[in-house]
């Protein structure tokens, strides 16, 4: 069995559901709550896993919250002095 994501025009929904009823032994429909909440859930998940792997491999590094804000504060001080 294979899983697909299908987008259906509102005006075609009833015809599609009729087709599914006729093919009920071959088709199962379930709602994916992840996609209900975020239509790009799986794309975001894939990107997150990619970033995590890059961090684990040392390709990119994570900067701490304190370090980021320290740099921002230092930068703001240089602007205030001008």
Could you please describe the fold and organization of this structure?
With 82 residues, this protein is an all-alpha fold. Helix content is 60%, strand content 0%.
Radius of gyration: 24 Å
Number of helices: 4
How much strand? under 5%
* Helical percentage: 55-70%
Query: How does the major sheet shape up?
Result: none
Number of strands: 0
Structural class assignment: mainly alpha
Overall outline: elongated
- Return residue spans where pLDDT drops below 50 for at least 5 consecutive residues: none
Return the average pLDDT rounded to an integer.
91
Order of helices and strands: HHHH
How far the N terminus sits from the C terminus, by CA atoms, comes to: 67 Å
Can you give me a brief rundown of this structure?
This protein is 60% helix and 0% strand. The protein is an all-alpha fold and 82 residues long. The mean pLDDT is 91.
What labels would you give this structure?
60% helix, mainly alpha, 0% strand
Task: Give the topology, please.
Blueprint: H1 13-22, H2 33-37, H3 41-57, H4 65-81
């Amino acid at each position: 069995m294979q899983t697909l994501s299908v987008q259906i025009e509102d005006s075609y929904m009833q015809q599609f559901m009729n087709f599914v009823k006729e093919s009920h032994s071959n088709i199962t429909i379930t709602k994916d709550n992840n996609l209900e909440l975020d239509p790009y859930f799986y794309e975001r998940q894939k990107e997150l896993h990619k970033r995590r792997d890059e961090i684990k491999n040392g390709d990119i590094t994570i900067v701490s919250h304190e370090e980021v804000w320290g740099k921002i504060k230092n930068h703001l001080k240089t602007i205030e002095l001008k």
